[in-house]
Amino acid sequence: MKSAEVRQEFLNFFEAKAHTILPSAPMVIKDDPTLMFTNAGMNQFKPYFLGNQNSKNNRIANTQKCLRVSGKHNDLEEVGIDTYHHTFFEMLGNWSFGDYFKKEAIEWAWELLTEVYKINPDKIYVTIFEGDPAEKLEKDTEASDFWKSLIPRERVLLGNKKDNFWEMGDQGPCGPCSEIHIDLRSEEEKAKISGADLVNQDHPQVIEVWNLVFIEFNRKANGSLESLPQKHVDTGMGFERLCMVLQGKTSNYDTDVFTPLIKEIE
Ligand code: SER
């Protein structure tokens, strides 16, 4: 599958689920002193999440050009260290503004990855937010239960606030998230160590591809969290990472795609 087809399949899938397709927003953010460059697909929708403006469409999908050199989720220090961080990349995303929530976001992500892109479900692990007592945030059992209706429970892992609570910046919309990780290693490697032990461990072949964020809070300037009047969905899938996964799939030589890169890093 060519990268242009990978992108188009994503947009077609969500268009068929009644999403309006929008163009990528500009890279330089105007009228928001909290962030310099667009670092996520959701930036342009911040006023909708906060309830300051209403979107004409409550379901949107797009592919957003992102620059992750500023903001809370800043990848500048990661680039060149591993095989899967870029400062500039494209993020495929679908959004719900006060419309669908965790169930649909999870089920559609699963359907797209396993039925449209035909990624082998045995390669997939997901994480859900384990909760954070200091912030009085509970474990996301709801997302966990939806996942467990789709994949074996041992593939649903707990993640901490750093990995599983997404925030746009020091202030702004935020919420627990559920990440989808793909294990691209050979069967031989998998027999030695389970993919579950390598999720979020910076392994070059066990990588996060998609982040499903369930936005329900606003982080205020004083650091406190306030509940938003409505609940929203903000998902972001790394387009280049997805292409890497699908390239491995079609060539049937998953590890060969990475071997030269890994050698270079070593
Ligand atoms: N905002 C989330 C992220 O950038 C999901 O789109 O990862």
Count helical runs: 8
Q: Could you state the order of secondary-structure elements as H and E?
A: HEHEEHEHEHEEHEEHH
Ends apart, CA distance between termini = 30 Å
Q: Please mark out the parts with pLDDT under 50 across 5 or more consecutive residues, or reply none.
A: 250-266
Radius of gyration: 18 Å
Bound molecules: serine
Rounded average pLDDT: 90
How many β strands by DSSP?
9
Tertiary shape: globular
Largest sheet at a glance? 9 strands, mixed
Share in helix? 25-40%
Strand content: 25-35%
List keywords for this structure.
266 residues, binds serine, globular, alpha+beta, 8 helices
Give an account of the 3D structure.
- With 266 residues, the chain is α+β, with helices and mostly antiparallel strands.
- Helices cover 29% and strands 28% of the residues.
- Strands 1, 2, 3, 4, 5, 6, 7, 8 and 9 form a nine-stranded mixed β-sheet that branches.
- Helix 3 packs parallel to helix 4 and helix 7 crosses helix 8.
- The model is unreliable at 250-266 (pLDDT under 50).
- Bound molecules: serine.
- Residues 40-42, 93, 166, 211, 213, 234-236 line the site of serine (SER).
